[in-house]
Amino acid sequence: AYDAQTVLRGGIAVYFPRDPVARDRIELRLGNMISGCGCLPNKSPLFFQTSLSGSFPASVWQPKVRLTTAKRGPLFPCVKCEKKDKEEDSSEKPSFEKLSVERAPYHSYRDSISGQVEPASGARASILGQDYLPEGTVGQARAAGAPGPSDESSGTSSYGKKPGSRRKTYKAAGAVSESTEMNTVVDQVVEDDGLFERSEEEANDEFSDFVVYQKENETDELTGYDLDKKLGRPHPFIDPKVRKPIKEPLTSEELWWNWRKPDKEQWSRWQRKRPDSETVFLKAMAESGQIKLYGEEPTLTETALYRARRHLYKEERLQAEHDRLEKEGPIAYYSEWVKAWKKDTSREAIQKHYEETGEDENTQLIEMFSCQTAREYRIMMGTDYRVSRDPLAMRMKEEQIKQIWGGDPVYPTVNYIQDPDQVIDFRGPDFHEPTPNVLAYLQQNGNITSREEMDKILAGEKVEQVKVKTPFSDDEAMAKAVDIGEKEDSDDEGKFGDDENITRNWSVLKTTPELRKSKPKPARGKGKMTLEEAIADSENLTDFLLDFDQDKRGRHESTVLSAFHPQKILTVCSSFGLEDDFMLWYIIIAGTVSKYHKSKTCSSN
Amino acid sequence: MASSILLQQSIICNTQFGKSIKNGWGATKSNFLEKGKKIGDIKARVAVDAMETAASPTAFPFFQTQPQQQDTPASKLELADPEFYKMGFVRSMRAYGVEFREGPNGFGVYASKDIEPSRRAKVVMEIPLELMLTISQKTPWMFFPDIIPVGHPIFDIINSTNPETDWDLRMACLLLYAFDHDKNFWQLYGDFLPSAEECTSLLLATEDDLKELHDDDLASTMRKEKARAREFWEKNWHYGMPLKVKRLARDPERFIWAVSMAQTRHINFRIRVGSLVQDANMFAPYADMLNHSCQPNCFFHWRFRDRMFEVMTNAGQRIKKGEEMTVNYMKGQRNNMLMQRYGFSSLSNPWDVLPFSGNAKIHLDSFLSVFNISGSHEDYYHNAKIANEGDSFVDGAVLAAARTLPTWSDGDIPPIPSLEIKAVKTLQQECQQFLAEYSTTSKQDQKILDSTPEMSWTREAAIKYRLHRKLFVEKVIEALDIYQDRILF
């Protein structure tokens, strides 16, 4: 009958625990209440609250409330009697909070928010009962329910210096001896104060274990802006002392012409040179005396020069090797790495062997390589780690090596992100300086035709153009193109002078004529190649077109390139008033070239 | 009735440095007596249920009365500094239903509310591992929490100790290091440890104090212990040591104090951290404020799940509000061992021994039945149910007498009274000889204690030690008197 019964009290459902002990107690208590003379020694303040004010505190969860209304009626006067008793008691000992009603230990807790005793279980409890808590959280709920200390302590911690200093007995015992000592000390200090201001500090210094580099009280006093900034008070973003007023902004035209070098070279830290292998190598080279640097750090120019030189030297070496290979023949060249090959490697001997056995040069080469050991092969291919590659890199100091490779051979961290092929910016700090007016220069030398002239020329040639263009279909135009191409070619020769041979870096070369004159003939002799020669050198049209923009092919291609540079063709076209059909002409010329090339190859064969 | 018990307790309860002894026997008895008094109260108020209440094991808290509250041992002491609990509370230490009180004799833990008997042990304190200082008992040295950094010279010092014997030196090093370790909890907690003046450990005793013991064996042991600690300090805190070691203990006194802390408040316990089970020497804050009792109402428990060191009450034991919570420091040890390790002795240590050498023997079963002692030899206890009410004579000392007196027992053969009385006389003479070896009598000792209230703690402990010894012998004589009186009936 007592199992989880619901009793409606004030319209609120109250659940009671199934705990058999609690049930026993309810029975006991009921028995007492019934049989007692009516002066029930109930002392629960919460119970009083419940019955008198009609509020609904936690104690309704207590089993003792489970009474029928009929029995509760006569109990009220007794409760009032008891309240007097309680007041008397509390007047005797007010500090003691009396909660004499024994509750099951952790079925209620004092809520730190409301300050009241709350049920720890039941439907209205903020913390569920143990049965509802997940495994392992019972302890947490209990720990949350334990009331924390609320009083304040007067003492302060000595942080391990004086153990026992916060014990009450310590204070009592130590106070007697200490107070006398303290008094004497204080007297002395008072006497000394006038004489030596620093006596106290010095005394402290003797006791401290550590070297003190700077006294704490030596902080410079901040004022105004710095103080505001330090304390976080509202302050301008820029220090008003440092701040320069912004003048009237210049127009972009004025900015262009009034450009000035900045006072400080590096006004942003993003302008800093990032460390890369080249700089480090340059510094190492400078240290070892191979080169001389202008300053401490290699400049951008020096670095670029170094890179270019390195590349060129490497190319040179490779070229020399290649030449040697050409000269000696492959067997003689590679026999260096085949120690076991004792036969004569001269061209005559090879030829003789060929005549005797019918084995050509390639077969002999393969035969020779079959005698090569693995070690020799590695040395030949340059993968032998015993051969030190760069003596300087070997001799570099550890920190220099680490600057490049980051100390970790597998994951070099320092220059990992850097692109080794990064093209440096040659512009330098004065790249804003105005360049010479190219247009005026060209006009002055008659290299450029004005619009009026162009119009005149165009007007003269218009009829002819129509004539040329209209009668042919596209296919026939290709067939006809041969003639025009020849004609074009001859025109090209006659019209353009020396200047036209300058095909690259023209702006530089034209602004500095000395550069041009320094090596006049050899460059010119090579560059001055006729179109025929150029065409003869290029194998076919596709190759030619593919390599068009790249200068890989060396001097021959560069000549061809100069002859067929679209800019030049455009110039030619425009001189004939054929500006609009530039692409057409280009194709025509290209077709000529291919045709010419074919005929050439046929004739040579 | 109750007041006499409490008086006796107040004599016995000589807390000296936070840990105190306590007459466990007295605790049980006072429990019983309080119950009796309660019956009286109920009789006065509600006559009908008197019998039922007396029979039922559950107390009836409804009828607790105010004056009785004031009699509890806790009410004589004042609450400890609130900061003491707070600093642990914010670090997840929890105390349930107990409070820390501080008296003239040191700290103690007292129940702040009634703890009902329950089938399972109840947790009254939870101390997280992070607050403790532990070091494994055997190599390899492991520290939980691991506060000692790798390569710190204090580790080399700890490592240089003898793994078998020098656990206290290791603990002292650890404690001193914790005091120096930044933001360590023990920097705060150390303020509540007994200072060197308050600690009764004989390590801190002077030569005169050791002489006052009137026990040469114990005195020489303590001298050796002291010399050992001092040697260790001289070996490791010499001039050339780095500052971070030197500043831990500038003078040997501080180190010896730390060693005495290690000896008096260490807890040897097997803990399990993760999959690692290890026997550890521990400093457990708050748990070390529990005082000693031969009949404790609490015990320690290691909660593996969240690495909490728990103090739990005995299952099925009722603890009234204001009663002291106690644990048993050492089981089955004599007073001299307690004195050597903890610096206190117990008047009624049930394990105390008298070195009888004669041939006289008394009949064991008769002696036990005279004093209503039940149980086997290992766990004698006073069976209060069959004893007469008001019989407060039997305490731990009588149990000790039952163990230490030379006895005979041969099946059902009853003792011959004349021979028994003769044996009793012989034994009493031997006891008188024991007393005669001391230069002072118990009365004189008591007088010394009463006359000089401001004695050093160690001196007081030393005098109490010999006083307790004498009182024990006197108690044995008295018990033998009672025995020969009652044997005839």
From TrEMBL, chain A:
InterPro entries: PTAC12. One of its GO terms (cellular component) is nucleus. One of its GO terms (biological process) is positive regulation of red or far-red light signaling pathway. Residues 139-176, 483-502 are annotated as: Disordered. It comes from the Eukaryota. This is Plastid transcriptionally active 12. It comes from Ambrosia artemisiifolia. The lineage of its organism: Eukaryota, Viridiplantae, Streptophyta, Embryophyta, Tracheophyta.
TrEMBL record, chain B:
GO terms for molecular function: protein-lysine N-methyltransferase activity. Keywords: Methyltransferase, S-adenosyl-L-methionine, Transferase. InterPro entries: Rubisco_LSMT_subst-bd, Rubisco_LSMT_subst-bd_sf, SET_dom, SET_dom_sf, SETD3_SETD6_MTase. CDD domains: SET_LSMT (cd10527). GO terms for cellular component: chloroplast thylakoid; plastid-encoded plastid RNA polymerase complex. Residues 96-330 form the SET domain. GO terms for biological process: chloroplast organization; methylation; plastid transcription; thylakoid membrane organization. PROSITE patterns: SET. This is SET domain-containing protein. The lineage of its organism: Eukaryota, Viridiplantae, Streptophyta, Embryophyta, Tracheophyta.
